[in-house]
Amino acid sequence: MLDAKGQEITSSKAIIKELERIDHLFNLYANRSSGMIDPEGIEALCSDLEVDHTDVRILMLAWKMKAEKQGYFTLDEWRRGLKALRADTISKLKKALPELEKEVRRPPNFVDFYSYAFRYCLTEEKQKSIDIESICQLLDLVLGSQFHPQVDMLIDYLKTQKDYKVINMDQWMGFLRFCNEISFPDLSNYDPDLAWPLILDNFVEWMIAKQS
Amino acid sequence: MAKTVDLEKGWEEMKKGMAKLKATLEGQSDSPFDSEESVKLYTTVFNLCTQNRKSDHTEYAAELYKRYRSAINEYINETKETWHIFSERTSERWSNHNIMVRWLSKFFSYLDRYYVVKQSLPNLAEAGKACFHDLIEQEREGGQIDRDLVRSVVSMFRDVGVSGIELYENDFEVYMLENTSVYYARKALDHILVDSCPDYMLMVEQCLKTEKERVSHYLCPSTEPKLLEKTQHELLFVHANQLLEKESSGLSRLLEDGQVCISISVITNGLESVSTIFREHVTSIGQALVRNAADEASHKKVESKDIVGFPEQVFLRKVIDLHDKYLSYVNGCFMNNLIFQKALDEAFEVFCNKQIAGVSSAEIFATFCDRILKKDGGSEKLTDEAIEETLDKIVKLIVHLHEKDLFAEFCRKKLSRRLLSDRSVNEEHEMSLLSKLKQQFGGQFTSKMEGMVEDLILGREKQVEFGNYLRDNPHENRGTDMSVTVLTTGFWPTYKSSELNVPTELIRCIEVFSRFYTSNTRNRKLTWMFQFGYCNLIGRFKPKPIELQLSTHQAATLLLFNTSERLSFSEIMSQLNLPSEEVKKPLHSLSCSNYKVLIKEPDNKAISSSDVFEFNSMFTDKMRRIKIPLPHTEEKKKVTVDVDRSRPFAIDAAVVRIMKSRKALGYQQLLMECVEQLNRIFKPDVRLIKKRIEDLIHRDYLERDEDDVSMFRYKA
Description:
The complex is a heterodimer. Chain A is mostly helical. Chain A has 10 helices and 2 strands; from the N terminus they run ααααααβααβαα.
């Protein structure tokens, strides 16, 4: 009994210690006046982690923290993320990143991460869509490694077409569904009678015209 | 060099080989068939075919082919008896049969490659199978055949096939259908020239019935549609024209005589196909009318470019006649059968939506109505009854239009011009057309146009009141007669209000009317549309005074010359306060047309901004009153743009209406219901609907279901 209790105490002590270290780490990068890690802090963190701040893993880290505002981490978000990753030092965090990437790539997580990536880019109040230029970068970042030919073609299309200046969430989710479901580049199982967003109908038409 | 082989000797060899093959298959022989033997047999066939190259080898080949066929037949007949006895072994028997054919065609493969290709006889393997089909043909010709036998053969095809009924379809059905086509093509040719149409139709009916029975007796059910389609195709569609145009008894002829009901009523199954012929027939006549009209329009274009001319008028007259004619058939001969009503509608839908010489059918229909209702409708001088009748018929055709909203918009434009230029025949006809349209397409369709006619009637009452007002207030009477029509914003097409600097004479009139108008109405704002106004001026020319009937813009331009003899273009522009395009039109009509009330420097046919104008005091004409026309510009593009702009809203409203009541709906179904709802107004483009759905998602009216991506939910 006592043993068990003693165990409990040590483990909770350990937890408290860990939290302290996580908070300590936060304070290293946080801006004193705003009490948040701001873009500058993130850049410092990235250089300590030896990853580029545009690396997809930083976006994954933000997803893990459920960070709400692009370029900022609050203390709550930081605690949530690092606790889940069991990382209380820079070197542990660095080691946790490959694991995190694996976790994100698991299918149900990936859909969540993919839609998070879109929402994360909505910086303005009531903003619902993202300009083509940023969408192309984001596509390349989150899908580029997995669906290289699709993403290349899609970006090529998005940059040449004139009908759409911005992309909304529905179209964004359609892109992922397209990459997952449609045989590429022959597009043999693409059925325009299904409820694909119109932009994908146009994309497929464009591709077919290009191929012939 | 191979040694010469005599045909009979060679055939002996073959027979031995075949006997052995048979024995092997029947399990009566112990020694299996080895490749050496098969090579030997092949060599025999090769030798038989190749020797005597110069003279008669083809005859050997032909003979061989004949014998091959009979050998197969023999095999079938021989084994037929055993089928009944060993029914449980039939599928094995069938595969034996196939093996037999396969082996034999191997032996004879040289024959196959060399002779058959040359003579284009059916491939040997096909010849083997054709034997079975001969049986079916025998039955078609009325012969008695062993149906059980054929059924078991057919079921063998099905059972033998490893993956479903592929074997049946590829090895049996294909050939059988081909045979069927050939058979009925022949039969059709035999009968079409001899039979009268009713007899022929009875024959078709009979054939369709027996083919249907055949399927139920011994074929796969999946064959039925294909078989019937082939039969119908050969018997009906190939000869549709002949059937329709048979001199004494063609369908068209019968239609005209009203006799066809006798035969048609007999046919139950053939009804669909007859209606198809009917539809095709009507469509092709209609298409020909469209082509003719297009040709004429393009010829006419050479002569006078800008007038959307009368070929369309003639075209619609013909379409009306066509509709009358065939509707009477549907009602009479076809006893108002729904299938034929539908066929007629479908046919008219095809060619009533064709553009003619770049003009949309919606506009053609609107122009047609306009010509009927105009006072100076040109060639069309109709009695009241004839007008009523024509309107009735045209409305029936408008039902087939896809772009009814576009038609309505053109109608409204033209109605507005008719009403404002006082050309309307009478309000009764206008109202009658509107009530017919209202009946067909609902109150929404005509509410604006009704409002317009209403405005005119009210306007006339107001004019009387205005007269009384002037009489009661003599100080207001300035000696200029004026009549004003007040239009309700919203009913009428939107026009830009004119910024015209009104001549002082008119300003006074306008003030008087405004005082009168505000004295008995409240909170109404008057906007003056001078571009629709007309003025009568007396021109005091030196030879004689002439009354000029002018538009307000023309009059305002001319009145400027009361104070100055010469004016430059830019002076006129600034004094009238109109954009240069608006100034050019009246100036052109006054200085470049037949009536040169103004003298232009330089004297040419176009107005440019450096021109100078002078009043022509020597102007004269043999008439004492002349009308100087101002060419009006058709705003065709604007109409189309307006309509295009209104469609997204209509779609949005329909989608929201549907989703509000259904809460959740699959994409295809939503599309369907949306098209159905909008059909009364226009035939919506599916892509446009999709775009609107996406926009509604974006605006948070709808959302896509997370699990089923082709399902949409209404967000309250």
